[in-house]
Amino acid sequence: MAYRALQQKGFVLPTRLQASMTTAYEGGSATGSRSRSWNPSGAGPNSAATSNLNTIRRRARDAIRNDPWAKTSVTRWVSNVVGTGIQPYPRHPDKGVRAALKELWADWVPDADADGRLDFYGLQALAVRSMFSDGEALGRLRARRPEDDLAVPLQFQAIEADLLPTEDYRALPGGNEVVNGVEFDALGRRVAYHLWNRHPAEMQGRGLREQRRVPAVQVVHAYQVLRPGQVRGVSELATVLLRLKTLDNFDDAVAFRQEVANLFAGFITRKSEEDAPDPTNQLTGEDEVYDYDGTPIAGIEPGSLNVLGDGEDVTFATPPGAPDNYSEFMRQQLMAAFASVGIPYELATGDLRGISDRTLRVMVNEFHRLVEQFQWTVFIHQWCRPIWNAWIDAITLAGLMPVRYLERRQWRRVLWVPEGWPYFNPVQDVKANTDAVRAGFTSRSAIILAQGEDPEEVAAQMRADNEQADTDKLSLDSDSRHARNKGAEFSDPSERDDDPSGA
After folding, report:
1. What CA–CA distances, in Å, run from 56 to 61, 89, 223, 237?
2. What is the pLDDT of residues 258-273, one digit of tens each?
3. How large is the average pLDDT for residues 25-52?
4. What average pLDDT score do residues 168-178 get?
5. Cα 492 to Cα 476: distance, rounded to the nearest angstrom
6. CA torsion angle for 87, 88, 89, 94 (degrees, to 10)?
7. CA–CA distance, 387 with 154 (Å, rounded to integer)
8. Which of 103, 137, 257, 302 could disulfide-pair with 127, CB 3.0 to 4.6 Å?
9. How far apart are the first and last CA of the chain?
10. CA dist list (Å): 396 to 109, 203, 359, 401
11. Residue 323, Cβ neighbours under 10 Å: how many?
12. By the 8 A CB rule, do 456 and 462 touch?
């Protein structure tokens, strides 16, 4: 500003000094061949996310339907984030309450879907898939009546993001404001969602479509928050849609070239027009067949050796084949595409050329770190947690368990445990876990939780197995109580039939 004031008074700085005062970062420069035409959008978090959101969604869904790499990316992401399900383990201080909650949850899981097509963990997979393709997952909590005969009178209805209009932006009486279909109060809290009662792209019932206000406590809305104040989510494929479309067109063109190259075509040339064609074809020994325009057509069979007539010659077509760098070009482009969505190229395609076990382990660990970040900071917090809280509230209202209002936080305490990662090297990984537990660096419960299991259930299963082995008087190498397996010895070895003393 001071420099502009000096300019207005006619003061001119040396050119070199002017350049140094303009910008210290070349990324902020507005001059030069590289940056002169670089004028990116300065849209806010919601304008940037929703200005072409409907177009992005349509293209993302089309890519997943028709492009094998887009379909592979969403499949890999869902299978790693959800797997067989992210399960809740209650953390109530009372062991009996924890057991009762687990049993009640197991009874409710098959009935969780309001549409009756999926169980609760199937709804998780659908939500993660929607977040990847559409940018966000929406669902509505539906309270049910006792006569519906559910373990807990609550169900979850999955809703496609199209039912929440992005163009709905208005001020409401009383100071509330609707931003992209979401209503906020004067303090910026979400209070309601303005949803269509029917999908806007479905033909049936279009005349009956209307927008309804649904309280925010009944809606679960999950998406990646990339900028402060962002209200709607953006598809993970948004940055690679044009690249995938270009690659698909290029791949089709190469495939067509190969198809043309496989057409083995030959042309018979006669030396002069005066040479009248012989009605008997010299290649087949049969009468010539003519095309619709009078051109004679000759076929050739495998293993044949034919003699042409006088003055005739055969020329074969040489169509172009695939480019020499086709494979490496596709590899580089797919590596960039999968890197954009956070999935290693090698895991997505199965192409492990030149990859050692050590390098693959590093890539898998980094991918697992990315998946776990998404699980804990986004999906569990935005999708799993509100459903569990609503489930506890439904239990309270139905009187299924004695939940006191002042103690509700104890009932809401839950640890969501994703499916465990498979061992990379079972022998080495199990040995490392065993050494870590014995050294006191971790606990058996932590190892069991990392595998997606409930430590209390595993302990109960171990006790049952041990009791059954004692009842049947079995001595098994798998019994960690045996001293030869470096487990704890029995308190009274003389009481066991397999006591080495023979007592």
Report:
1. 9, 38, 15, 8
2. 777 666 566 666 665 5
3. 81
4. 92
5. 18
6. -150
7. 10
8. 137
9. 98
10. 18, 41, 51, 6
11. 12
12. no
